[in-house]
Amino acid sequence: MVEISADAAVVGGGLGGVAAALALLRAGRTVVLTEEFDWLGGQLTSQAVPPDEHSWVERFGVTASYRALREGIRRYYRDHYPLTEGARAQRELNPGAGHVSRLCHEPRVAVAVIEAMLAPYRGSGRLRVLQPYRPVGAEVDGDRVTSVRLAHRDTDEQVVLRAPYVLDATETGELLPLTGTEYVTGFEAQSETGEPSAPAEAQPLNMQAVSVCFAIDHVDGDHTIDRPASYDFWRAYEPPFWGDKLLSWRCPNPRTLKIMERSFTPNPDDHPQLVEADQRVNPGDANLWTFRRIAARRNFTDGAYASDITLVNWPMIDYLEGPIIDVPDADRHLAAARELSRSVFYWLQTEAPRADGGTGYPGLRLRGDVTGGADGLAQAAYIRESRRIRALCTVTEQDLSLAVRGDKGAVSYTDSVGIGMYRIDLHPSTGGDNYIDVGCSPFEIPLGALIPRRMTNLLAAGKNIGTTHITNGAYRLHPVEWNAGEAAGALAAFCLDRATTPHAVREKETLLADFQQRLTRDGVELRWPDVTGY
């Protein structure tokens, strides 16, 4: 069996994994980065989710390297796309003019920019990317991981990685069970966390819905797909709290839980440069077409785009029938989630009520060429909730909730390694919960949340950090995942440089100060200015 060695093994090539690898490489270290799917970038690319970001993202509140990613995406559009002069002149160019984010864009552009950021390190030989590979085993000596075994997704060819530091940046914390690292899943009990929104008893299999996203446009002609095999099941499916069938325009408002009706207007005659994408003011989900639009045709020269392209990550594609972590039928649930998304698309084409009184939009096309999925959908399911390490520090609801903290702001951690901001945004769950949506103060990322209580050379570098089921809803978004991964990579490099351990860095005041100084030097913000949450 082939063995590969490096200073660090970063398993999982989502946003946290890419950021971790870049931090290690900037520090002069050698890295093996692995990824299960065809594109690096995780939720931004293979999962096809436009970036969910806070209201101040254009001014502060993200790391310098994340800002470089965002600006690289805008530069790619200016260099390669036929933008109108008005769009090209916009400093804060939003190619899709979606309401969910100030930077809605096609996933493939983010792939190109991520690859460009990594390219010089591949050329120098200090970075090796193994793709598409998934972790299938590990060897452990006491509290240390000595190797990780990977299998090729398509051929099952296996490779062994050996490295002084192993970073778990997988979407579901795959290394945690493989290495025997203590972790938690689902909803913790209130007696454990003290969280106002937690249940009386732990619910380890109660997790947020996964969603299989897809891109669509609307042009002349009939592009109706074959009727999905399970369409009748999903057409009749009605969650008890939904207020209607899942396949409808009616559903709960995430913040108020009142039943609301959303609209759907393909290719509205709106001005893309007048869109205000600020979730503090407006969540932007009233018109589903513009909510997560990733290409606004009026941002491009006449004829370049026959239609807008919008990304379907809407309430009706949330899969509630079962979790996909630590269950024997995970593959069945993932396949059913894909079937739900195909059924939603077929419903849109054939039965969705139109404003003119008719039904169906046969002109809708599935744009698998945009998402890279062989079946027309995203390559990977959007997984909101991972296994989470039993960490030295676990962030709880009362650390950041506006209802609890009031005007005091979020808890400030001595060992902050970054900052983030998002409402606690929990989608309906496999345990039958409705939305849980809680206003938040701008928060910090504690170093202790990246470090398992026991393991000495395994670090969390994604959505598997020390949050709870509830606070994961705020820490799971794109810039926070990137920051967590970047801090984990920087920590591994720092420990190698100083011949120390992650636990010691957190415990020793001088080491912690030196590490935080290194983060600040690299453009990682550790504290928020005086701003109020939402």
Structure description:
With 534 residues, the chain is an alpha/beta fold. The chain folds into 2 domains: 2-50 and 105-187 and 384-522, 3-Layer(bba) Sandwich (FAD/NAD(P)-binding domain), CATH 3.50.50.60; 210-267 and 307-371, no CATH class. 27% of the residues lie in helices and 17% in strands. It has 15 helices and 23 strands. The chain has helices spanning 15-26, 64-80, 85-89, 107-124, 175-179, 190-193, 231-236, 288-291, 330-350, 368-371, 402-405, 472-475, 478-498, 502-507, 509-521; strands at 2-5, 8-11, 31-34, 127-130, 133-141, 144-152, 158-162, 165-168, 183-184, 210-211, 214-218, 250-252, 259-261, 293-295, 309-312, 318-319, 364-366, 388-389, 416-420, 424-426, 436-438, 443-446, 458-460. The strands form 8 sheets. Strands 4-3-2-8-23 form a 5-stranded parallel beta sheet. Strands 1-7-6-5 form a 4-stranded mixed beta sheet. A hairpin with a 2-residue loop joins β5 and β6 (144-152). α1 packs parallel to α13 (478-498) and α2 packs across α4 (107-124). The radius of gyration is 22 Å and the shape is globular. The protein starts with a strand and ends in a 13-residue tail after the last helix. The model has no long low-confidence stretch (mean pLDDT 97). One of its GO terms (biological process) is NAD+ biosynthetic process. This is FAD-dependent oxidoreductase. It comes from Acrocarpospora pleiomorpha. InterPro entries: FAD/NAD-bd_sf, NadB. It holds the Pfam family FAD_oxidored.
